[in-house]
Design goal:
This protein has 256 residues and is α/β, with parallel strands linked by helices. The chain folds into 2 domains: 56 residues; 162 residues, Ribonuclease H-like superfamily/Ribonuclease H (Nucleotidyltransferase, domain 5). The protein has 7 helices and 7 strands; from the N terminus they run αααββββαβααβαβ. Strands 4-3-2-5-6 form a 5-stranded mixed β-sheet. Strands 1-7 form a two-stranded antiparallel sheet. α4 packs across α5 and α4 crosses α6.
Length: 256
C-alpha cells in the first residue's frame, strides 16, 4: 500500500456495483493463508465491503499488481530448523481514521519457519500507545500459549521458553512490574494474563528496535525498501529464484 495514503469510508466515489470488489477481497483473503506480506493490506480493504469506493478498488488493484509481479513467492520451511518458539508483537496506535482504533500485528516463528501471523484491528480504543502495544502483546501471548498446546499434542518438545519481542519499553515495564498503577487499571486483565505467563516461565519478553520489528509489516504501510526487508525476514522466497545463489564457474580441464 502507499505509505502516505489514508483510506477511510468517505475517500473516493461510491462504486455502482459492489459485487466485483467483494469477490476480489474474498479471493485475496484466501491468499493471505500463504502470503503474510499482503495480510495487512487485505485486512484494511476488507473493512469497506459494505460501501466500497473507487479509492478502495484502486488499492485492491495495487495488491493484484504486486501479486502478479511475484507469482512464485511463498513460505519456506527449512528441514534443519530448531524447535525454539519466538514471536514478534507490534501495534499502530489509533491507525483507523474512522474509529481511531489501533491495529495489532504479530508473527510467530518455530525456528526459522513462520507458522502463524495476524493483522487485526483492536476491539476497543486505546488511550495511549503503551496500551495499544500491551494489547498486542496480550494477543500474541494467547497465540503462543495455543501453539505450545498444539506442539505438546504433536509430541514436539520445545527448546526453552518462548521469546516474545516488542519495541515498546513501556509495555515491557508494565508486564514486569508487579505493582498496578492507576493508569494501568483499565488494562488489568491483559496485565494479569501476560504476568501469569511470565511467572510460569512460558514466555520471556525482550526489547527490540523498531527497525528490526518483523511484525511492523502487519500494522502499517511501509516504504518499499523497509517492506522488502521485512518480507525477507518473514521467510518468504520465490520458487523461480535460484535456491543456492549464483553458481561459480568451474575451471576447465582443457580436455576435449
Amino acid at each position: 500500500m502507499i505509505q502516505t495514503a489514508k483510506l477511510s469510508q468517505d475517500s473516493g466515489a461510491p462504486l455502482e456495483d459492489n459485487s466485483q470488489y467483494r469477490r476480489l477481497i474474498g479471493k485475496l483473503l484466501y491468499l493471505t493463508i500463504t502470503r503474510p506480506d499482503i495480510c495487512f493490506a487485505v485486512q484494511q480493504l476488507s473493512q469497506f465491503l459494505d460501501k466500497p469506493t473507487t479509492d478502495h478498488l484502486q488499492a485492491a488493484h495495487r495488491i493484484l499488481r504486486y501479486v502478479k509481479n511475484s507469482p512464485g513467492q511463498g513460505l519456506f520451511f527449512p528441514a534443519n530448523s530448531s524447535l525454539k518458539l519466538r514471536g514478534f508483537a507490534d501495534s499502530d496506535w489509533a491507525a483507523c481514521i474512522d474509529t481511531r482504533r489501533s491495529v495489532t500485528g504479530f508473527c510467530m516463528f518455530l525456528g526459522e519457519a513462520l507458522i502463524s501471523w495476524k493483522s487485526k484491528k483492536q476491539g476497543t480504543i486505546s488511550r495511549s500507545s503503551s496500551e495499544a502495544e500491551y494489547r498486542a502483546m496480550a494477543l500474541a501471548a494467547c497465540e503462543i500459549q495455543w501453539l505450545i498446546y498444539l506442539l505438546e499434542t504433536l509430541e514436539v518438545k520445545m527448546e526453552g521458553p518462548a521469546v516474545l519481542y516488542s519495541d515498546s519499553k513501556s509495555a515491557i515495564a508494565i508486564a514486569e512490574n508487579p505493582v498496578f498503577h492507576e493508569r494501568t487499571k483499565h488494562i488489568e486483565i491483559d496485565c494479569h494474563l501476560i504476568r501469569e505467563k511470565l511467572q510460569k516461565g512460558i514466555i520471556r519478553l525482550l526489547h527490540i528496535s523498531t527497525d528490526n520489528q518483523t511484525a511492523d509489516i502487519l500494522t502499517k504501510p511501509l516504504q518499499p525498501l523497509s517492506f522488502q526487508k521485512l518480507v525477507s525476514k518473514l521467510g518468504l522466497h520465490s520458487m523461480y529464484n535460484p535456491a543456492c545463489g549464483v553458481l561459480e564457474d568451474k575451471p576447465t580441464t582443457g580436455q576435449g
